[in-house]
Amino acid sequence: KNQVEQSPQSLIILEGKNCTLQCNYTVSPFSNLRWYKQDTGRGPVSLTIMTFSENTKSNGRYTATLDADTKQSSLHITASQLSDSASYICVVGPTSGTYKYIFGTGTRLKVLA
Amino acid sequence: DADVTQTPRNRITKTGKRIMLECSQTKGHDRMYWYRQDPGLGLRLIYYSFDVKDINKGEISDGYSVSRQAQAKFSLSLESAIPNQTALYFCATSDAGQTAGEQYFGPGTRLTVT
At the N or C end, where does chain A have fewer CB atoms within 10 A? Predict the structure, then answer.
């Protein structure tokens, strides 16, 4: 069964600190892996998109990595800000020959002053 | 103005009522999607449409129907709402020409069925 699992479920850090969120997947093959940020009460917004052949992608203070051999991805947030408080969702897809995207359940990050 | 809009943003309805959620987009994308989000679960696909004449069921389509009135409009209907359809509903769009398959989400509709 195609799955995307994220850890930790929730995380609290102090402003200015770095953190790393994990995503393990069993989906194969697929076109790309994405990380989304979802603020409370809002729709997800894309942070990074990587094809299965890419190892890393950055977007400002956000850096995503992908290890296709171990089927793991991580999202590293540098010098966290209060505005980083949100849920971060890992999405894998579309799976080969389909429309389907597999969504993880997300990691809820809270940044404290 | 937002590229993907959803109406209403919040709705409370009673069991057995018919309700329609609407989605409009100004991105000019061919592909539109309806998802629901429940606590502790990832977003799940209800229906998707790759153009006006192409509508397909997703993984949890039972109890829902859709209408693609135009390229820019995609509506989701609950014919007879039930409490376990209480959830956050998102519309999304993507451009068929983009190989990366970027999806753009609306702000969501919070639906409560009592």
Answer: N
- Exposed, middle or buried: residue B99 (CB in 10 Å: 0-12, 13-18, 19+)? exposed
Residue B72 has pLDDT above 60, yes or no: yes
Which residues of chain A neighbour B101 with C-beta distances below 8 Å? 31-32, 93-94, 101
pLDDT score recorded for residue B40: 83
Q: Which of A32, A43, A93 shows the shortest C-beta gap to B105? A: A43
Partners of residue B111 on adjacent β-strands: B11, B87
Whether the Cβ atoms of residue B59 and residue B43 lie closer than 8 Å to each other: no
Share of chain A above pLDDT 70, in %: 96
Cα(B100)–Cα(A76) distance, integer angstroms: 21
| B48 vs B35: CA distance, rounded Å | 9
Q: What is the pLDDT of residue A1?
A: 67
Specify the amino acid at residue A31. Answer: S
CB B5 within 8 A of CB B95: no
Between the alpha carbon of residue A111 and those of residues A10, A11, A94, B35, B78, the distances in Å are: 11, 8, 32, 28, 38
DSSP state of B97: T
Instruction: Report the residue from A34, A94, A105 with minimal CB separation from B41.
Output: A105
DSSP A80-92: --GGG-EEEEEEE
Higher-confidence residue of B103 and B112: namely: B112
Interchain contact, B105 vs A94, CB within 8 Å:
no
